[in-house]
Write a structure and sequence with these properties.
This protein is 64% helix and 0% strand. The protein is mostly helical. The chain has a single domain, classed as Amino acid/polyamine transporter I (Up-down Bundle), CATH 1.20.1740. The longest helix is centred in the last third of the chain and has 41 residues.
């Protein structure tokens, strides 16, 4: 007989006692199929880094085009501070609110239904557009590699985009353990490609391979270039907060989520700096600022055939790992919204055999394909960044309200981030700076995105909220908030 895991509720941590059933309930309790708790810290690391590491292989270099290589490095480190704050705040709240949906579940418990609805949309849009960006780069990469090999004939890169999305959706449909174990392996391989390229460029011998003296320039657009570069500086780390989406499938949330998230952030800081150093020493900044696959191009410029092939595989692994993690995260957020009736309850179903949110996974396949074959790469990256940025803004407000409503000592936390409220205030400040940076280059997209989310909020308040079961929203076994 198959062992069916009961769902104690998204807020109950391992080891926490379940509330006793009322004495009058003599009938057998109803069972519902739950997500499996099978993941460990390594899977959390692979989910976070797997989504983000592709940012080192493509996209970040658009920051070079905005302000030059020095501005891009400054933006990289400022964005690193922003995401370190995100990782610390996320680790504290998620290790306490261990439920599918991540920041959506946090907002539902701490701020309220309207904020939770918007955060859920931010997450879905950010991860879906990131998945689309990965599919686009996969198609461009395969097209470039086949062309460089001199193989006669032409290929349709759109076919590879569609194949990537469909194949990874099928893998996620079949089970989270297999999909994230794959992410663990190919993410490690992609990270090793960055390390190998860094060592092959002989950083200990300036001028032997890297030509920083000839190629590195200051600030061609002045200090304003640093502000403009902040837009794509976020691409180095966008998605690390996705570790929280698997909170309901982790064996020990209080340990695995903070450990996997913070270790992932350290990995990305090292990879981002090494990537900038190598690429800025091999390519003129004018070319680097518009390249589609900068690390693969860097491998080609070393003159080593085996290194070119290795970087091709590393870029391919990074895009596949990122797209795979994005499908996982977007489907979990949409599944959680369906389960809570913020979206139609049809999306809240779990597959009876594979124990995955299969309807939410399948739903986004045609949407991702449509954007992949019709939207330029810089546009999909911008849509993803803007959605993530809105989520980070609400995250800073969430931790302030969380500490105010449930001060330290009132509830058990798996992790307590230091120096509160400094990380939240720093996060808010950097978010405002990045909004301004995005407005300078993509003001139309920023206004359009804000209009979309405002319209969605009006729809939720006037139409959808009446289907939400208000009494089921607060699932954590916490004391009454302070002051209520």
């Amino acid at each position: 007989m198959q062992n069916v895991q009961l769902a104690p509720g998204p807020g109950i941590l391992p080891g926490e006692a379940l509330p006793e059933a009322p004495a009058a309930a003599a009938a057998p309790p109803s069972k519902r199929i739950a997500l499996l708790r099978v993941l460990g810290p390594g899977h959390v690391w692979a989910l976070g880094v797997g989504i983000v590491l592709v940012g080192e292989f493509m996209g970040w270099n658009f920051a070079v085009g905005k302000g030059g290589p020095t501005a891009a490095l400054t933006a990289c480190w400022l964005a690193g501070i922003l995401y370190t704050c995100v990782a610390m705040i996320d680790s504290e709240i998620t290790s306490t609110v261990a439920a599918a949906g991540g920041q959506y579940a946090q907002a539902k418990h701490i701020i309220g239904p309207l904020a939770a609805f918007n955060v859920g949309l931010y997450l879905v849009m950010a991860y879906t557009m990131l998945e689309v960006s990965n599919a686009i780069v996969t198609g461009d990469l395969l097209e470039a590699f086949i062309t460089n090999l001199g193989i006669p004939g032409t290929i349709d890169k759109r076919a590879y985009m569609v194949l990537t999305i469909v194949a990874l959706a099928f893998l996620n449909y079949r089970g989270v353990l297999a999909s994230l174990t794959l992410n663990l392996l190919i993410t490690a391989a992609a990270f090793s490609a960055i390390v190998v390229l860094f060592l092959a460029s002989q950083p200990w011998a300036p001028g032997a391979v890297l030509q920083h003296d000839a190629l590195l320039v200051g600030l061609p657009y002045g200090s304003l270039g640093i502000l403009a570069a902040m837009h794509f500086g976020l691409w180095f780390y966008l998605g690390i907060e996705g570790t929280t989406q698997a909170a309901e499938e982790v064996r020990s949330p209080a340990r695995a989520l903070p450990l996997g998230t913070m270790t992932g952030m350290m990995t990305l800081l090292i990879a981002a700096t090494a990537t900038w150093y190598v690429c800025s020493g091999l390519m003129p900044w004018e070319y680097l600022g518009q390249a589609v696959t900068p690390l693969y191009d860097a491998g080609r410029l070393t003159g080593s055939r085996w290194l070119e092939v290795f970087l091709f595989l590393g870029t391919l692994f990074a895009t596949v790992a990122s797209a795979n993690g994005c499908i996982n995260d977007a489907s979990r957020a949409w599944f959680a919204m369906g389960r809570d009736r913020y979206m139609p309850a049809w999306f809240g179903a779990v597959h009876p055999t594979y124990r995955t949110p299969y309807r939410s996974i399948v739903f986004f396949v045609p949407i991702a394909i449509l954007f992949a074959v019709s939207t330029p790469l810089d546009q999909t990256i911008t849509l993803s960044i803007l959605s993530g940025l809105l989520g980070y803004t609400l995250m800073a407000l969430s931790i302030i309200l969380f500490r105010r409503k449930w001060p330290l000592g009132t509830i058990q936390r798996g992790y307590v981030h230091p120096l509160h409220p400094l990380p939240a205030l720093l996060l808010l400040t950097l978010c405002v700076v990045t909004y301004l940076a995005v407005f300078l280059g993509y003001g139309t997209q920023l206004i359009a995105m804000m209009a979309f989310y405002i319209g969605a909020s009006v729809w939720f308040v006037l139409h959808r909220y009446k289907y939400v079961r208000r009494g089921d929203q607060f699932t954590m076994h916490w004391p009454r908030p302070k002051g209520y």
